[in-house]
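Question: does this match?
>
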Amino acid sequence: MPIELTVPAVFNSIGDHSYAVLLGAMLLAGVGVPLPGELTLGFTGYLVYTGQVDLMPAIAATTAGDLLGAVFSYGVGYFARTRVVAQYLYFFLPAEAKLAKLTCWLNRYGIAALMIGRLLPVIRGGIPLTAGFVRMNARLYLTGSLISSAVWCSAIISLSLGLGHNWQQLSGLATNAGLAAAGLIIIIFAGGYMLRRL
């Protein structure tokens, strides 16, 4: 069964557990299971459109699932560096001096890069693992991930809600929405940087 049909089939069989399944589906997408988060969010918008779920609880459930998946992937990257990669694949690691510089840079500026990357469909899945690997500051990571997850889930669900029965046309719009949101974040951070320089 094509995945475009699998997601609706699953949701049609869950009855009163819609929000738990939404959370679980986004969590699985966040940890790398081949279940596109955009597809789950798109169908969520359709469920809101048809009155099967409410908008705000749906956004809260999908945001929580996306955030939990991102936290899990961050943890995998964080611990894999010391327990697996360092022992068996140490030749893939950058030099300690270079890694220290990268970690310092990411801890200082990384929240902008994190938020932008997590709003781009093509690369958003790889951001948490990378952030964990370079030991990005956990508080910054959680803050950036929470904001980007909330923006991403809200935007895609709202777009799908607007499409109604045509929610499957969402794929191209999701990419454009991600690019627009990422561009807005760049403008905000650039403006803040310029104001501090004045």
Notes: Residues 3-197 form one domain. The mean pLDDT is 75. The helical segments are 3-12, 18-30, 37-49, 55-88, 96-117, 127-133, 138-163, 170-197.
